[in-house]
Amino acid sequence: MRVEDLDQVAEVSDQAFIAVIGKLYGQRLERPFFPLAGLALRLWTDPEGCLVSSDHGEIGGALFSVARGSLGWFGPLAVATTVQGQGAGQALVAECLHRWRRRRVRMLGLETFPSSGFHAHLYAKFGFRPGWTGVQLRKRFDVEGVEEEVEPARPLQHANLPLPDLGFLYRGLDPAAEVRATLLRHAGRVFASDRGLAILHLQDAFHVTPEEAFLPFLAARDRDSFLSLLAAAEEASRAAGRKSLALRLPGTAWTAFRALVERGYQAGPAMLRMKAGDHLDYDRDAWYVDDWL
Ligand SMILES: CC(C)(COP(=O)(O)OP(=O)(O)OC[C@H]1O[C@@H](n2cnc3c(N)ncnc32)[C@H](O)[C@@H]1OP(=O)(O)O)[C@@H](O)C(=O)NCCC(=O)NCCS
Fold first, then answer.
1. pLDDT tens for residues 9-64?
2. Are 198 and 146 contained in the same domain?
């Protein structure tokens, strides 16, 4: 995928998702579905993992992915409604997996619609198992609550500073590309300590709005460092004038789920996560927030 492709990619992806959501949920959505700036941030983050399929110069399908070192996930994946069912979707997934093998990605993931047999069938053909969930949680800052006092973690000021080793969560896990993209494109802030790291998006990214900030990634060794990174993200969101902070959490990260609810977060809808590779349950009871779409 090239930067020049992004307008066509956005059109194809928006139309495909608006159509499938209409079919699965009866909702009638309008463009833009994926913010162009969010797609651009993804491409900037991992250009080798973003692919298009085209026919005579016309883009028919697109796949975005991010390899966080040894842990990779893809999405959004979309094929133009006019050419679906002709193999383009499978070709894009096959090429992504081929590239991940070369890059030694060992844990492969995606998030999809829980009520669609079609999607489960498609991804199961590549060895992805439908055994997990991703749950949205949101904290509204205008709701009063009693909060545990914690010292907020420090911001990471420069994109090229060494990052903490997150091997305690998954060996080889490395979010450096997203850290760099977030800071260099001024999409948000990064917080780090020797016990963990968090990425906060405030603008020009998926899931953010003028009212809401989004936390695409947080990995911490323990409860204290998790809460300290979270407090830093909340403080920065408030300081930027946002009224709420949203995140997605693996459904298996149950201790983190409970800590978030205690801190005033409310659970939202869940998506189906499918995984393939090694150590698929690495996120069980982990102090871990991540976003797979
Ligand atoms: C999901 C999507 C990317 C798949 O791309 P595609 O090019 O249509 O898929 P392919 O032609 O490669 O094949 C998909 C498989 O599902 C089957 N299939 C295709 N259309 C189908 C349909 N409407 N219903 C059921 N099965 C279908 C195909 O036969 C094939 O399986 P098979 O080879 O075992 O027969 C595409 O349909 C799409 O963009 N959908 C809307 C957006 C979306 O849902 N994205 C993914 C979100 S996780």
1. 999 999 999 999 999 999 999 999 999 999 999 999 999 999 999 988 899 999 99
2. yes
Q: What is the CATH number of the domain that holds 203?
A: 3.40.630.90
According to DSSP, the β-strands at 71-79 and 107-112 are parallel
172: in domain: yes
Number of compact structural domains in the chain: 2
Out of 52, 79, 92, mutate this one to test ligand 1's pocket (max ligand atoms within 8 Å of CB): namely: 79
β-sheet bridge partners, residue 188: 201
**Where do the DSSP E strands lie in the chain?**
51-55, 58-68, 71-79, 107-112, 129-140, 154-155, 188-193, 196-201, 212-220, 244-250, 266-277, 287-290
- Residue minimizing CA distance to atom 28 of ligand 1: 85
Contact 250, 290 (CB under 8 A): yes
Q: Which domain covers residue 34, as residue numbers?
A: 3-105
Model confidence over 166-224: pLDDT tens digits?
A: 999 999 999 999 999 999 999 999 999 999 999 999 999 999 999 999 999 999 999 99
Distance in angstroms (rounded) separating the CA atoms of residues 92 and 104: 18
Measure 52 CA to ligand 1 centroid, in angstroms.
16
Contact 6, 40 (CB under 8 A): yes
CATH number, domain of 46, equals 3.40.630.30
